[in-house]
Design a protein that fits this description.
Order of helices and strands: HHHH
Helix content: over 70%
Radius of gyration: 31 Å
Number of strands: 0
Shape: rod-shaped
Number of helices: 4
Mean pLDDT: 83
Length: 90
């Protein structure tokens, strides 16, 4: 039974495949590590932009009702309410 199973051939071809894959990946190690810092910088910038949008919306939702005067016209609203509206639109 062991004579019919080509275990040795499978093992040697598997090792050759892994060696080839390792050498191919080693060729791309330097370019990938060079772009690692750039990738982190871009991701941090995108996260800060999303955080800025969320913070502006929260400020708008908090400052708008705090400065609300029910009897005042929308054109004559207070500074706090106006700032809340500006933050909310930003």
């Amino acid at each position: 039974m062991p004579e019919r199973l080509p275990v040795k051939n499978l093992e040697s071809s598997g090792v050759a495949f892994l060696d080839n894959a390792t050498s191919t990946l080693e060729e791309y190690r330097e370019p990938v590590t060079a772009f690692e810092k750039l990738r982190w910088s871009v991701c941090a910038l995108l996260c800060c932009m999303v955080l800025l949008v969320v913070v502006c919306n929260v400020f708008g939702l908090v400052l708008g009702p705090l400065g609300l005067e029910a009897a005042a016209l929308p054109t004559e609203r207070g500074c706090l309410s106006n700032a809340g509206g500006n933050f909310f639109m930003a």
